[in-house]
Each structure stands twice: as structure tokens, then as C-alpha cells.
UniProtKB/TrEMBL annotation:
UniProt entry tagged with the keyword Transferase: yes
Catalytic reaction annotation: Typically cleaves a -Gly-|-Phe- bond to release an N-terminal, basic peptide of 5-8 residues from type IV prepilin, and then N-methylates the new N-terminal amino group, the methyl donor being S-adenosyl-L-methionine
Domain annotation Prepilin peptidase A24 N-terminal: ranges: 21-142
Record lineage: Bacteria, Pseudomonadati, Pseudomonadota, Gammaproteobacteria, Alteromonadales
Domain of life of the native organism: Bacteria
Membrane topology: Multi-pass membrane protein
Protein name in the entry: Prepilin leader peptidase/N-methyltransferase
Length: 304
């Protein structure tokens, strides 16, 4: 392992290239996570609701002296997770061949269409694969073959998955944000990105800052301005990067969110008052703070 690290340390461009290939492959898996994880959650919620209703129905039938069903009906009998079933065309159900699953190249080879029925395949898949490869390549160039790079790459993968899910579902699942929060605190126990004290304060300040804005807005307008998942995502960023980066993250995400929102309204792509997910802007600002946060903050302080 040390020999490989030495080779990559001496040939940084080789490390960046290998990293891009690996990260783009992970990006292909992130596409699966973005699509399937919300479906898995919905199925789990539905099964829990059906289980409760079945128990209530059984209890009611027993009180009435009637025979309950021996086995409740499962609304989702087929196994469904991040691995099963294998990828297939949603229109014709044709299985996706392994070489068509190659990151970026597979979509290009298929010309953006199913090989069997010519149904269009969203360009989002190669875009996420390319974006994942490029973002992690930037980390490779900046950090080199270090443990900090590995941790930063994991953080980047998680931010990409959360961004895609929030764009699709307006949802930042606790099943992803909460473990990511604890991982951030754990890695900073060893001082990976900041001190443990700054990480703990960052997690608390990240959550409470948006929580306070949420309640002030709700008291003033009677409406909910953002979801609880946004509080948790900012807490995650604080846990990973420390409280010092939170002002930068909040300013960047708010500016980008405002610009995007106004642009969509101006081009009539969004009706005024309709909600837009804030998670992607927090994630983008968090990644910028991860890579260039110290430079941006120090440059600003130098002008004071």
C-alpha cells in the first residue's frame, strides 16, 4: 500500500486520473442511490402503515367474533434495495448490459437511448457521473493521496447523493444525514479537518441557526420556510468543517439559492411561492468551503 501511495505522490496527474475513473464509477452507484433510496423509504413507510392497519383490522374482527386473515397482504412482495433488482429499462424492462453501465461511456454508446426500445435515458446519469469524477479529482489534486483526501471524497459522495434526492423528492433523509453527522464528529476526534471542539460547536450552531430562522419566519408569516432536513445538513457541514465555516456556507447557499430562484421565476419555470429545495445549495456551499473555505475566509479577513 505504501508503495502505491509513493507512486501516486510522485505522479500526481496519475493519481488524479485514477481518482477520476474511480469516482465516476462511484457516481454511477450514486445514481442508483438517488433513484432507489427514496423508493425504499416510501415502501418501508407504506409497509409500516399497512402493518398497523392489519393489526387494527385483526383486533376489530376479533372483537366482532370473526376470523382474521391468517397472513396480511404484503403490498410489495418483490425484493427491492440498492442491489436488487438489477438495472433495467423502465419502459420495456430490458436488462441493462454490464458494458452499458460504464460511467459516462455507457450512455454515450447508447446515444442516450435504450438499446431495445429506444426509450430516452436521462442525461442526468452521465452528468452525475462526470460531476462526481471532476469534484473528487479536484480533491485529489489539492490533497494528494492522503487520508484527508479519502475522508473528503466520502463527504463529497454523500453531498452528491443528498443533492440528487432533495432535487427529486424535496427530502433529506435522516438515514443519510444523521450517520454523516456522527461520522463528521468521529473523524474530527482525530483532527481530520478541525478540532473536535469546533466540530461539536459547528454541529450545534449549524442546526440551531437554521432552526431559529425557521421559527422566526413561521411566527412572522405563518408558513414554513424550509424543512428540518436543511437544519440537519447544515449541522453535518458544521460537524465536518467546524463552526468557522458556517457563515461562509450560509452566505454562499443563500446567494446562490436567491439567484436561482429569481432566475426560475423570471423565466417562468417556477411560480412565485412554490417551494424549491435548499439542500443542494447548502451541499454546494459546503463543498466549496471544504476545498477553498480557508482561502476565502483568510482573503476576506485580510481586507479588514
Amino acid at each position: 500500500m505504501s508503495e502505491i501511495v509513493n507512486i501516486f505522490s510522485q505522479n500526481l496527474w496519475l493519481f488524479v486520473f485514477v481518482t477520476f475513473i474511480f469516482a465516476a464509477t462511484v457516481g454511477s452507484f450514486l445514481n442508483v442511490v438517488i433513484h432507489r433510496f427514496p423508493v425504499m423509504l416510501k415502501r418501508e413507510w407504506q409497509q409500516e402503515c399497512n402493518q398497523y392497519l392489519n393489526e387494527y383490522h385483526t383486533e376489530l374482527l376479533t372483537k366482532l367474533g370473526k376470523t382474521a386473515l391468517e397472513k396480511p397482504i404484503d403490498p410489495y412482495p418483490a425484493k427491492y434495495n440498492l442491489v436488487v433488482p438489477t438495472s433495467a429499462c423502465p419502459k420495456c424492462s430490458a436488462k441493462i448490459k454490464p458494458w452499458h453501465n460504464l460511467p459516462i461511456l455507457g450512455w454515450v454508446m447508447l446515444k442516450g437511448k435504450c438499446a431495445e426500445c429506444s426509450n430516452a435515458i436521462s442525461a442526468r446519469y452521465p452528468i452525475i457521473e462526470l460531476a462526481t469524477g471532476l469534484l473528487v479529482s479536484v480533491l485529489a489534486w489539492k490533497l494528494g493521496p492522503t487520508s484527508q483526501f479519502l475522508l473528503a471524497a466520502i463527504f463529497t459522495f454523500a453531498l452528491i447523493a443528498l443533492t440528487g434526492i432533495d432535487l427529486d423528492e424535496m427530502l433529506l433523509p435522516d438515514q443519510l444525514t444523521l450517520p454523516l453527522l456522527w461520522i463528521g464528529l468521529a473523524v474530527n476526534y482525530f483532527g481530520a479537518f478541525t478540532t473536535l471542539q469546533d466540530a461539536v460547536i459547528g454541529a450545534m450552531a449549524g442546526y440551531l441557526s437554521l432552526w431559529s430562522v425557521f421559527w422566526l419566519f413561521k411566527i412572522a408569516t405563518g408558513k414554513e420556510g424550509m424543512g428540518y432536513g436543511d437544519f440537519k445538513l447544515l449541522a453535518v457541514i458544521g460537524a465536518w468543517l467546524g463552526w468557522q465555516m458556517l457563515p461562509l456556507v450560509i452566505i454562499l447557499s443563500s446567494l446562490v439559492g436567491a439567484v436561482v430562484g429569481i432566475t426560475l421565476i423570471a423565466f417562468k419555470k417556477l411560480n412565485q411561492g412554490n417551494p424549491i429545495p435548499f439542500g443542494p445549495y447548502l451541499a454546494a456551499a459546503g463543498w466549496i468551503a471544504l476545498v477553498w473555505g480557508d482561502t476565502i475566509v483568510n482573503s476576506y479577513l485580510a481586507t479588514l
